[in-house]
Amino acid sequence: DVKVTQSSRYLVKRTGEKVFLECVQDMDHENMFWYRQDPGLGLRLIYFSYDVKMKEKGDIPEGYSVSREKKERFSLILESASTNQTSMYLCASSLQGGANTEAFFGQGTRLTVV
Amino acid sequence: QKEVEQDPGPLSVPEGAIVSLNCTYSNSAFQYFMWYRQYSRKGPELLMYTYSSGNKEDGRFTAQVDKSSKYISLFIRDSQPSDSATYLCAMSVRGSQGNLIFGKGTKLSVKP
Description:
The complex is a heterodimer. Chain A is built from no helices and eleven strands. In chain A, β5 and β6 form a beta hairpin. Chain A starts with a strand and ends with a strand. The mean pLDDT of chain A is 92. By secondary structure, chain B is mostly beta strands. In chain B, strands 2, 4, 5, 9, 10 and 11 form a six-stranded mixed beta sheet that branches. Classes of the chains: A mainly beta, B mainly beta. At the A-B interface, β5 and β10 of A face β4, β5 and β9 of B.
């Protein structure tokens, strides 16, 4: 089975802190994604990456950056955490190829910024 | 008009009922259609995956895609309390690097 592992289930950080959310997948997937999920707003794409050292902005990249130094690892960075970044963060991965394939999600990181 | 519309519910049904969940979309280029199930405080898990139009059945679950109407459905037969979750539809365009467009999810509660 595909496994996507996020480093923390729950995090509490202070306003202004630099926050790192880590995601690792074990199925050699090329594509990796970071979403945030908020009540009433659904899943919103922050950034995605289709190859090592490649990144593309999603719908809401402001206040975030990402890093993909290795194929299996995709990190989301909150440069200076703010209270409006309190949310559930979800990492996903998928295969790349001629046909789209489904995305597999991690268990999520619930981040609270105080 | 949003690309993918999904009624957020909540939807409450008695155990054993047939459940129908639906999404409509506006982008005729969508070719891949998925349903995810998300339990409270967990990540979404893939439930059904279909390509283009037609039906797909897996146990108590049936996914339908009607591209002419831009409408997809998920049917759950003999619903169980363990089916209580939020159901998210998702879709993508071929060649979009796997970038999925999600509905906002429908919260389902199956009462014993």
